[in-house]
Amino acid sequence: MTTARRPSSAKEPENLQPHSPEAESAALTAALQDPEAAKKVSELSPAHFYDDHRREIFVAIQSLVARREAVNVLTVYQELQARDGIAKEIPITAIHDLEAAPPAVGYLATTVACLHKEARRRALIAAGTKLVEKTRENGRDEAELLGDFWEATKSLDIAGPVPMAVIREGDDFKFSQDSLGVEIQVARVRDGGEGIQGELTVSLDGRALHWGRANLASLSAREALATKLRRSSTRIPWADILEQVCRGTTEAVRATEPTVQLVPAYRTVEPYVIGKLIPDRETSVLFGDGGIGKSLVAKSISLSLATKTPLPGGLLPRQTGPVFYLD
Question: What's residue 284's pLDDT?
Fold first, then answer.
């Protein structure tokens, strides 16, 4: 008895299930090129990789990260050789080609989002296939079939949370997921006595679905908003997205600045623009009774700074520049 494998060649048969060879390769390339990327990639699951070879390479990387070992061509190849089955058939050149590919760390978030999307599509197909099989059985009513389908769709959880890109503009935040067309803006964020609150604007494919103020830590508020948003689209995992948005905003607002040790240092640059008269980058004040010549002194200083002409007493400006005189 033989078992057909999913081919790892460049030419993919048309009858394969949804997957992205480019995204699978890019994720592995990023993991081989950067240690931090390897940690993020290892948070995926083997179900995200449809191709047998790429899935085995991922499992090897995941194992290395779990043991806190270095991830490179040699360690991944040794990990594959220590396994049985198809893993032993993967040549070291295949791993080397992944590492030598163009840098993929910069668009890792987009790559992971693509893997999530394709994994969900395959899981949905599997759930639909089970529904078709059960529909053909005798004695099954519609309610029971729909219940079975609902149970089958739980396999969609293998894809994990939907990653959200975030941009901070001052005290406002914008979360987005391009593949789903979702954008959530959190504005006028305030950390009060009852927790962090903010104004949430939710859009789907450029169409506004919700605007309102909410307590970001309130579970009931998030669940109510998710229920409302599901009426507009059931294909979006609103509960997961709102959880990320509320948690991400809260963590960003409450993050403290790192402690900085103050180290005394002597100034190496002359602290005066005009020696002992006009400090550099400081405010100088000439004060005295009226009619004693304050304006004349100010004009003389201005002329000296503009032309580098010495003042009486040998006071020479260290630099020149434009002067703005307001009387």
Answer: 85
pLDDT for res 22: 93
Query: 181 by DSSP, 3-state: which?
Result: coil
C-alpha span between 229 and 15 (Å, rounded): 35
Structurally, what CATH architecture does the domain formed by 16-160 represent? Orthogonal Bundle (1.10)
Cβ contact 209:203 at 8 Å: yes
Of the chain, the end-to-end C-alpha distance in Å amounts to 100
pLDDT at 175: 92
User: Which sequence spans correspond to the domains of the chain?
Assistant: 16-160, 165-254, 269-327
- The per-residue pLDDT for 151 is 59
User: How many residues are present in the chain?
Assistant: 327
280: left (phi over 0), alpha (psi -120 to 50) or beta: beta
Q: Tell me the one-letter amino acid at 257.
A: E
* DSSP state letter for 90: -
Claim: this prediction has a pTM higher than 0.70: no
Dihedral sign, CA of 91, 96, 101, 104? positive
| Residue keyed to tokens 């405010």 | 283
Answer whether residue 201 shows pLDDT above 90: yes
How many Å apart are CA 230 and CA 238, to the nearest integer?
7
Give dist(CA 186, CA 175) in Å, integer. Answer: 8
